[in-house]
Sequence to fold (613 residues):
Amino acid sequence: MTLLLWVFSFVGFAAQDTVALEQVEVYAPALDRFAQGQKVVSFDSKLLEAYSARSLGDLLQEKSPVFVRQYGAGMLASPSFRGTSAGHTAVFWNGLPINSPSLGQSDLSVLPVEAIDQAQLQFGSSGALFGNEAIGGSVHLGSKTEFGKGVKARISQSIGSFGMFNSAVSGGFSSKDFSTKTRIYRQFAANNFDYRDLSLPGTPEVKEDHAQVEQIGVVQDLAWNLSGKSQLKAAFWWQKADREIQPPMGSSTADLQSDENIRAVVDYFKFGERSVWNLKAGLVQDQMIFNETRNQTRQFFLATDYDFEYETDWKFKAGARATFMKGDLSTYSAADQRYEFYQSASWQAAEDLSLSLNLRQFAYADGFEPLLPGIGADWKLLQREKHELLLKASVGKGFKVPTLNDRFWEPGGNPDLLPEESINGEIGFHWLKSGLFSWDQSLTYYRMQVDNWIIWLPQGSVWSPENIREVQNQGIEYQGKANWKTGKWDWETRLSYTYSQALDLTTEPESPHQLPYTPEHQANGNLSAGIGGLSLNLSSFFVGQRAIGTGNARIMDSYQVWNAGVTFSKLTWGKVQFPLSFQVLNLLDKDYQVLYLRAMPGRSYQLNLTIHL
Fold:
């Protein structure tokens, strides 16, 4: 009898695959094993393939409820979940936290979709489940392991407007007990687009001449089934990005930035009849050279957890993680250590009701975080042949330890800062319908309070961070997908809308203002039609008005951008498949800015050819 042993990715240090040991199969991880009641968004392989020549920032901005603050084409892109800052988003790769310990965030513009096979988003405070920085949400990226597939190879080439030239090669081999996959990519864009310069009289049209971006990288994945009850996995990711930093309008700066990242992780799994023991070790090294100033950080991780099932209704996990970090930056050198102990449990209380409880204890060199709880529930209100209605509810706490820059930057660092803390509650409905006209819809209301929010303020001639801001977030998120067929045509439409209120209660508690660069309204939609191997696509994303600074003294205009594309997915030559696609981005040539005086490109074209061998 085949023994299916589930290994899931949680707290950043659980397994990333589900392994059937006798019939060596690998299944995608289920992020909600201990996350009942929480909102989770997954991107399928078809969508990741369509965005393979673009960045994770582009994917999240155009296809998710997340607002992405972009400083220009190919420039810094930071996520904002539910009105929180980039530092309130935890980012994981194969279960490894990859946020910079000095900045406390990740730049989504240098995370290419080409480098990953899986991407999922979790929304809301979840410090008990995922640890530090998971206040607004978390991003989970990963590689997909396959066994018994033989030899596979893929070549991809994309060319486009403004000097865009992206290349990628990947190849792999897998037998029953061994799997290897290597991918190499290079992405280049001159970004020499035209824009209206608002800083000059008459706002003349000028050409951007300092925004070139080049990025190269290598990803290596390995996996061995050592025996019928043990497995070893390893992954390595190296990349280097060189950028001319696009100056704001009216500035003549010519800054240069080079980022080099090394990420490596090793997992050992020991399987029992109803249990999995995981031992994980990881390294994350980030180096940034801004002009001629060099900053480097290193993080070492060691973790272990034990996941087991009791009968059929109970699932448990207990684990620990140690993090050792070292920062050598232009103004300071510092080290820090962090220790975490976590426990998770889920209970199938009834056929239509499941519950979860998560707890985490966190300690670092200068502080001790009280026990963090998180609870959630999924309740099937309706279960019929073609309909399912699910009620989801959860409440949890989150936290964020001050970054190395917050504590040690010279001059201005504040070693006495307190961790930022949050409490989040959400409730929502998830409605599924199957049939000739099927849909998948969800509606969520959330409310969040963030205390001890850290902001940098001027102290005379020196800026210094303080725990001064109290923020209240609440909002509504809707996501829907529908599929139907007319004749030989297959249709699909997707729609997402977010209303987000993120109020600063510190300065004017009686009349609080929306946080800067936080839109109240955001939406995106997509309509696609396919017949045979032909697929047509029309999509759009909308971002509402944003305040530039505190007090809402200056408001930026809303904008809506349209994209269109056509794909021929079944082109073949013998046994070789070579899908071809053509895209028009910013179809209506919209003149817009995400951030004030940061120019964005107008209409552009992309041609993508992929060869599967």
Residues 320 and 341 are 4 Å apart (CA to CA). The mean pLDDT is 91.
